[in-house]
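Exercise 7. Predict the joint structure of the components listed below.
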Amino acid sequence: MSTVEAFTTPEPAELAVPRRRRMSGLRGQPLPVKIGGAILALMALLALLAPVIAPYGQNELDFNNLLSGPSLTHFFGTDESGRDIFSRTLYALRVDLAIVVFVTYIPLPIGVLVGAIAGYFGGWVDAVISRVTDVMIAFPFFVLVIAVIAIVGPGVKGMLIGVPIAAWALYARLARSEMLVLREQQFMLATTALGYSRRRAIFRHAVPNLLRSALIYSTIDMVVNLLLLASLAYLGLGAQPPNAELGSIINEGQSSLLSAWWVATLPGLVIVLFGIAAGLVGDGLSDGRRR
Amino acid sequence: MLSYVLHRMALSVVVLFGLLVATFFIIHLVPGDPVTIVLAGHGTPQAIAETRHELWLDRPLLEQFWLYLSHTLQGQFGTAFTLNASVGELIGQRVAPSAIMIGYGILWALVIGVPLAVIAALRPNGIVDNAIRLGTTFTFAMASFWLGLMLALLLGLELHIFPVSGYETGLSGILKTMTLPALTLGLGLAAVVVRTLRSSLLEVLSSEYIDAARSRGLSEVRVVGKHAMRNALMNTITILSVNVGFLIGGTFVLEQVFQIPGVGSLLLQGVQKRDYQLVQALALLSGTAVVLAGLAADILQAWLDPRVRLARR
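Solution:
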């Protein structure tokens, strides 16, 4: 092996993710990742297939079954209009998961790239990018999204615009601090010594290494975004009726909390389940890396 | 110390200026303008033109920004055009309940979180540790408003310990009406406190100076409570300050659950009526609170820990 070949070995052993593991999905991952991943996959499947598997329409009224408790015909019971809560939850999950995936994974690559550039070049580029990230992170997301809703009006549009405006900054901050470490590594120094273009050094050699932390962080980010989305829907600022969101179903159940606990409780538990599953995946992945 | 503090303050000023720019442009980059959008169909063209003139919307963009900047720096946030009242006064009337809820919530988070973190860190990976970690995963995954409803159902409607809505002033009134909302807010934050403090305690407890303290025969209470805690709390302070934004959001939502007349309900009113001046001012104030909390945490850390102020000078 010539010296040049030794230098071109793309990633040092302690940073590299074994290619086999990255490609093979759940196989070879720690147990919590498998369990969490299975729950997430099941929830995504149920949400995706909602129109096929939901036993009732999301706005189908049944005046013979007003506020009836959970049973075999109505898994999650019915609300005061006799609508089936289980079916409504499935349709809501469909809307909510689609939005959450969009607002989590659109800003991610942008943030990683911006952070990589800040960390790679340093100097005034870094200073400018870091201050802009500070500003975006300083806004409580909830207030920022509400400000956008004040302009575009209630509906999911506010969330779809408001979150990505600021969320990239979290990934940029994370990627920047990792890039500061990365750029001192042998293989990154080698890209300079070999005369690779900066674009090649950043895109081909740095970014793949930065993506893993960003993806681990994104599991928490998804939970935070789902909670934010549910809060907005609870306040009546999300999808407008009669379309269901998890937060709006809970809101509708608030008035009958004492007589029909299931309307507000069960959709909330679905959110908790999603959060726990995503937490298991995130924790498991970051533990796996430390080993 | 002084140079570090000055450096941090200068950075905060830059970020605060950025917040001003951002809050200004979020409103103004929208096609059309807010007044025309909001009042379209409700007011005569003349009324719309008058409102636009009052809000400087008929002036060049840079002049608008200058007016916004200079007025805001003087503490004038303008008039909420749908409520016909001064934005500053409106916020002033509502700020106390929200601030109390945040402070009381942080207190709950510490009261619940710190002992649990210590117990978990003393026997890592034991049954108790795993149970605590599972519990924090649960509370972290709960939507605050949902947790609030569940606590209201249990402690309010079933057990009748606390009222489930309303706000009263005075110490006993606050304890009566704010305990449930603050506990809800605190439980979410406690999960964060437990996780951070547990991992920093584990790290600190494996360091040599702790071995040294133990070998001198100091009691375990003193070793953990004084020697280890002092270093481990550093990260927790930072995490708490980072989470001020999360707390503000949580408070605003919980105010709706428990019908508390705070800033959050004002914000909601502003959004429903699309009163952009009100929303703009509240966005700016929330952002400012986050920046100042971060600054305070950094200064507190530098004061407590010489390594911070020496390393970053």
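Discussion. Chain B has a mean pLDDT of 86.
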